[in-house]
Amino acid sequence: MNNILSQIVDNATFLLVFALVIFLMFLIAYAVEKYAKKKSNDTERILSTRKMVVTGMFAAISTVLMLFEFTVPFAPPGIYKLDLSELPALIGGFAFGPVVGVMIEFLKVLLKTLIKGTSTAFVGELANFFVGCSFILPATIIYRLKKTKSTAIIACVVGTIMITIVGSSFNAFYLLPVFAKMFGMDIEVIIGMGTAVNSHVTSLTSFILLIVAPLNVIKGAVNTILTLVLYKHLSPILKGTK
């Protein structure tokens, strides 16, 4: 805990950016949720007791899934790994709306940080939350506005496209440069890590196209398939209709 507090003080400016990103994600989710409720004359609270219970439960599951990371052969294991922590957020967001999805993403990152601390001065945590929301928000917003099986498929495809675009752009223009600066290394060192696993990686652009983008496509595709398989069975239980 003392280590976390020390890193908070040392990286105050970066954490302000983190807080702003969190606020914007919640603001977007809340605005869409209010619009959808008004359109459908839904009077239920955005965070009812059932929703809060499911949010807490799914955030805990998501945290556990986040701790089990898998290396992929085309990415430097010290920087990028694959996990399934977006799955509970997507299922929860499909069941109860984008606010719940973003809440699960936020609590997941918070719990993981409290349990394991941060080895990246919160850079990895910001990346996980922001990139995760770039997948969860579009998918849950689309499904919230029209809840059909075909819309669910479209929502997940759009989410996968968005996580690939946003994740790649975020890494290229912000995350990797900040990561390099914080740890006092040249960006070429990170590119070299990519070259070590793929000789075709020779620049930041090729690093993004050959490592970051494919990783996000795989993450989106795997979470999409699992959600489409599991959601139909879990939805009645989560909503208390079974």
Provide the structure class: mainly alpha
Query: What is the distance, rounded to the nearest whole angstrom, between the alpha carbons of the first and last residues?
Result: 42 Å
- Total separate domains: 1
CATH architecture: Orthogonal Bundle
Q: Specify the number of helices.
A: 9
User: Strand-residue fraction?
Assistant: under 5%
Uncertain residue segments: none
Q: Name the helix and strand elements from N-terminus to C-terminus, one letter apiece.
A: HHHHHHHHH
Highest CATH level, the class:
Mainly Alpha
List the quaternary state of the chains: single chain
CATH fold node name: Arp2/3 complex 21 kDa subunit ARPC3
Rg over alpha carbons: 18 Å
Q: What is the overall pLDDT average?
A: 87
Q: Based on DSSP secondary structure assignment, what is the total number of beta strands?
A: 0
Helical coverage, percent range = over 70%
Main beta-sheet annotation: none
